[in-house]
Write a structure and sequence with these properties.
184 residues, mainly alpha, 78% helix
């Protein structure tokens, strides 16, 4: 439930609003006219989304597993680490989307409910392009017994590389978009 609905929705709401509100309100001009490097602006917005959304979701996952599994610290830490990595990847995607389009929230909802929940769950080839699958594979890789009943067809190494590529790639796209953006 955390990886399939709560995590992506929390990160969608926070990360698209990181720049989306400033673009919509036309207050982005006040931020970009200051002598601050564009990458610092993007990285600070991205980190804010992760701290405000990702850490509470990761902590709730840690507490839920620790309580349900009667103190299984390894499983709780694995779940928390996987959720935090997933939060970072979702934050990068949705921060870029908030800069790229005014309909970022709608596009994000389509991504979460159509791509992640429906297509990636049933079409095996799409698993390599699914943050949800990366998150589940990381949790399974960090704690082999966790999620053993699920069909986790990705390895932890593949999931870690995929998450890193998404994080770095979409952060770079957001920096590029902010640098080339015509701000009125």
């Amino acid at each position: 439930m955390l990886t399939s609905a709560i995590l992506p929705l929390v990160m969608l709401l926070l990360a698209t609003a990181a720049f989306g509100n400033e673009v919509g309100d036309r207050t982005l001009v006040y931020l970009v006219t200051k002598p601050i490097a564009r990458w610092r602006i993007v990285v600070s917005k991205l980190l804010a989304s992760i701290v405000v959304g990702g850490i509470p979701v990761a902590l709730s996952g840690l507490l839920a597993v620790a309580l349900i599994e009667q103190g299984d610290a390894g499983g709780a830490l694995a779940t928390s680490a996987g959720l935090l990595a997933g939060a970072a990847a979702y934050a990068a995607i949705f921060t870029w989307a908030g800069l790229a389009t005014k309909q970022a929230l709608l596009i994000g909802l389509v991504y979460v409910f159509i791509w992640e929940a429906a297509l990636a769950a049933y079409l095996d080839g799409i698993r390599f392009l699914s943050v949800r699958r990366y998150t589940l594979a990381l949790v399974h890789g960090l704690d082999g017994g966790r999620l053993a009943s699920f069909d986790i067809s990705l390895g932890a190494g593949t999931a870690a590389v995929g998450t890193a590529v998404i994080l770095v790639g979409f952060t770079a796209l957001a920096i590029r978009k902010l640098s080339r953006m015509d701000v009125p």
